[in-house]
Amino acid sequence: MAERRRSWAEPFKIKMVELLKTTTPEARRHAIEQAGWNTFLLRSEDVYIDLLTDSGVSAMSDRQWAGMMRGDEAYAGSANFYHLRDTVEEIYSYRHTVPTHQGRGAEHLVSKLLIKPGDFVPGNMYFTTTRLHQELAGGAFVDVIIDNAHDPADPHPFKGNIDLEKLEALRARVGAERIPYVSLATAVNMAGGQPVSMANLRALRAWCDEHGIPIVHDMTRVAENAFFIQQREAGYRDRQVRDIVHEICALTEIATMSAKKDALVNIGGFLAMNDPDLYRRACDLVVVYEGLHTYGGLAGRDMEAMAIGIRESVDDNHIRARVGQVEYLGALLDRAGVPIVKPVGGHAVFLDARRILPHIPQHQFPAQALAAAIYLDSGVRSMERGAVSAGRDKETGENYMPSLELVRLTIPRRVYTQAHMDVVAESVIEVAGNAGQILGLRFAYEPEQLRFFLGRFEPVSPA
Ligand SMILES: *Cc1c(COP(=O)(O)O)cnc(C)c1O
Fold first, then answer.
1. What pLDDT score does 4 carry?
2. What is the set of active-site residues?
3. Is the CB of 123 under 6 A from ligand 1?
C-alpha cells in the first residue's frame, strides 16, 4: 500500500505540441459579447485553456495515429470495422457492433428501435441528447437516480446509483409493458461524473430479469466508472480496470457509446448489443441515417483509431492518471473553499454556481453567468450544466429548474498538464472571490431544442 502515497504521473511523454494562444482582457470582453455570453459560441482561437468538454478533444497516441494510416476505406466490409467489432466484443462483451458518427447517432437508433409512443424510459439522471431522442421517439424520461445525486455536497461514493424503489414505483404505476428499457449511464455526466456501484448494477439486473426489461447502457465513460469501483467498492481493489469494465458491460445487453470520450478519439461512436434480431433491425435502420452497417458514418481510419483507443482506455495507468488529474484540480479548488460537487467525478470538476452566486436567482442562469465570468478573467472556457441545459418541459413549456446549477470544468484526456490545472484553479478562485460583481443573464435568443448549444444571452442590469 506504500505505493499509493506516491504521486502519479502521466503514463506518456509528449512527442508533438500545439502552441496555445494567450488573450487580452479587451479581446475576451469583445469575444464573449460576440458569442452572446455563451461559451459554446466562442471561437476556439479566442480560448486559452479549453475545458468546454472532454468530447472529441483527446490527444491520440502514436499508435492511434499509426492506425489512421492503416484505414481501409472500402465502402463495404472495411477491415477496420472487423477490428473494431472484435475489440468491442473482447473488451466490452457485446457481440454485435453498429458504428455511428457519434453517441447521439446510436441514441437515435436505439430510441427508434425500442420506444413506442406513450412509453416511459427510466434512467439515472437525464442526459441532454439521450432524453431528446427518447422524447422524439414518443417516450417520457423518468429520473430514477438516488436522491443523493441531487445534492452537490453529499459525499456518497456512488451517486450514480439507481433507486430501485423509484423504479419499482414507476412499474407499479405504468406496468412493465410500457417500460421498453432502463437507460443506465455509467459515470453519470449530469450528476458530476458520478459512478454506479457494481452492487447497484447487480440489483438492477435482477430487477430487470424479473420483469423482462432490458438495460441500455450509456457506456460513454464506463472506464472511469470502473476505476471508481476499483477504488471504492469492497472486493475490487485488486481487480484490473479492464476486468471491471467487462463485468459492468456483461451485466447489460445493449449499449450506446460516444467514443469521443473514454475511447480517446476525435470522432465516432457505436450501438452494440447481444441480440442478433435487434442487430439485424439496427442494421436496417443505420443505412437510413448514418451509412452502411460496416461504417455508420465513419471513415475506416476513424474505426481503427477507435479500436486502438478502446484498448488504451482500459489500462490502469491511463485511467489513474486521467482521473488523478481531475481530482488534482478538484482538490485545489476545494482547499481554497470554492464550492464544488463532491466527490469529484471522473471527467470534470463541477462548480456549484448556486452557492458561488447566491445573489443571482436561478431564472437568471447563474451557472451560465459564472462560465462567462471565468472566460473573461483568464480565457479558460467551461460550460453551463444547469437550468439552461435542462431546457423546458415539453408538455407545459415551463423551464425545468434542476437542483444542480453547475459549471463544468471538463478535462480533455492527455491534453493539458498539471501546471495548466494550477492556472485554471487560480482563475476560478479569483472569480469566486469577486462573485458579487457578476450579473445574471436572460435569453436574447432561445432555440427550441438543446438550447444550451446555440442560445444567446444578455446581462440583466441590477435592479
Ligand atoms: C457526449 C455524451 C453523449 C452523446 O454523445 P455525442 O458523441 O456527443 O453525440 C451521450 N451520453 C453521454 C453521457 C455523453 O457524455
1. 59
2. 75, 127-128, 218, 261, 385, 452
3. no
**The ligand 1 atom nearest the CA atom of 104:** 9
Instruction: Please list, in sequence order, all residues whose beta carbon lies within 8 angstroms of the beta carbon of residue 333, skipping any fewer than 6 positions away.
Output: 340, 349, 351, 425, 428, 429
CATH architecture of residue range(s) 25-47+316-459: Alpha-Beta Complex (3.90)
57, 101, 104: residue to mutate for ligand 1 pocket, most atoms within 8 A of CB: 104
* Options 3.40.605.10, 3.30.2350.10, 3.40.50.300, 3.40.640.10; CATH of 62-313: 3.40.640.10
Kindly state if the Cβ of 189 falls inside 6 Å of ligand 1. Answer: yes
Domain map of the chain by residue range? 25-47+316-459, 62-313
Query: What tens digit of pLDDT does each residue of 119-147 get?
Result: 999 999 999 899 999 999 999 999 999 99
Q: CA dist 43 to 123, 322, 331, 348, Å?
A: 34, 26, 30, 21
Question: What average pLDDT values come out for the chain (463 residues) when binned by 10 residues?
Answer: 68 95 95 97 97 98 98 98 98 98 98 98 94 96 97 95 98 98 96 95 98 98 98 97 98 98 98 98 98 98 98 97 96 98 95 97 97 98 94 89 94 97 98 96 93 95 76
Q: Is the CB of 102 under 6 A from ligand 1?
A: yes
